[in-house]
Amino acid sequence: MHIDQIYIQYLKENNSTGIQLIYNKYSKQIVTLIQQNSGSEDDGYDIFQESLVDIYHMVNKKDFVLTTNFGSFLSLVCKRKWLNVLKKYQRMPVTNLEQTVLYLEDESTRDWEEMLETVNREYAVMSLLNTLGESCQQIIKRCMVEKHQEKIAESMGISYAYLRKKKSECMASLVKKIKESGLF
Amino acid sequence: MEHLADKIQDYIEGQLQGEELLEFEQLMDKDTDFRNLVHLQSEVHEIINRRLSSNETDLRETLFHAETEVRFKKKRRFFIDIRPFLAVASVACVLLFGYLFFFNTNNALYELPDMQSEIVRGQESNNQYEEAVKLYNQKSYSQARAILNSLIAAEPEVVQYQYYAALTYLGEENWAESKEKLTPIVEGHSVFKDEAKYYLAVSLEKLGNKQEAIALLKTIPAQGQLGEKAQQLLKKLD
Question: Distance from A57 to chain B by nearest Cα, in Å?
């Protein structure tokens, strides 16, 4: 285990002091990197934040052991994320960035690639969920989090049958959007 | 396959039993596309469940504070720099809405939504609610309302009945009555709150209370079809 595993722990535990340390230590270099590759300062901070959220989900999914320094790992995640944005919006080519991102150093990097793919897809699913209408979002989210659907229906002022029907429809329209996005 | 497609969510949640479950699983065995659809929806279900169970919201709050702390030290030049851009963006928004206003018919803004059935296709139902659905969607508003009113009397806490009953007045262009019936729904906390706001705004506009309608439309969240519709109506009224 690398000594920088502590940063992973900070994220996992939502340790505010540790997270501030991560920002103080790494945000500037990432923002600069994004700015050097067709992005703005805002883009840089967005990518930095979203990458930390991705890492958080990666480490929560399974035991995650850092085998290199945190800076290199974070940089890879950020580059990867930014490359996806550039491809999506077809901004100017970023050959150097692409080369460094696609260059796989070792087995552990390859594992990360797979985990990042998964996390990216999850992120995209949640983003698409947030494009649904307010009532669909509310129904899907509440039905996932709260287990007593009869009570959800009651608090929403709808019948249980209507809730179930509506949830099926909302899920179907989300899945349709996901299929159209070509994510899966 | 169609009526079973409605039951995918029930299958994922383990709600299908007996004959229904057997029929569903047989279709999954036979039909690859259907099986893939079930697997996809199941994966999506799992992802949402996992994400919502995580403490991402709390983490984001911490990240936001850390970012503010780091950026606060920096000069505020950035905000000054983007001012001209914001002005251009505002103009672009105005032009976009103008385009939407002139090139789209306004009829869709005043159309009533279909009344939502409660039953899953393939199942039989003869309850009062389904009869009201049929009548409402055929635009037989007073007959639909008569049934809905009896449902309201039996279950006054179900806002769904009140909402559609209120819309029947809109269907009849009885704006004063639709305003009266929609107002308590807007003031409540049901899932129909935002939709009721929209149709209350329509009623208010028709009654000549344009400013009230505008104020109400501005409180509707921008996401989804309803949000888009509200923005379009807002632009039309502004």
Answer: 8
Domain spans, chain A: 5-106, 130-181
| pLDDT (tens digit per residue) in B124-167 | 555 888 889 999 999 999 999 999 998 898 888 888 889 999 99
Alpha carbon distance B14, B25 (integer Å): 12
Structure tokens at B34: 């259907």
Burial B144-183 (b: 16+ CB within 10 A, else e): bbebbeebbeeeeebbbbbbbbbbbbbbeebbebbbebbe
Q: Which chain B residue has the Cα nearest residue A163?
A: B118
What CATH topology corresponds to A5-106? Rna Polymerase Sigma Factor; Chain: A (1.10.1740)
**pTM higher than 0.90, yes or no?**
no
Going from N- to C-terminal start, the domains of chain B cover: 2-53, 107-237
Residues 141-170 of B with CB under 8 A from A: 155, 157-160, 162
* Fold of the domain spanning B107-237: 1.25.40
Tokens (6 digits) for A137: 């979002």
Which of A19, A22, A156 is nearest residue B191 as measured by Cβ atoms? Answer: A156
Instruction: Tell if the CB–CB gap between A134 and B118 is shorter than 8 Å.
Output: no
Nearest CB neighbour to A132, from listed B71, B188, B224: B224
Contacts of B188 in chain A (CB under 8 A): 157
ipTM for this prediction: 0.81
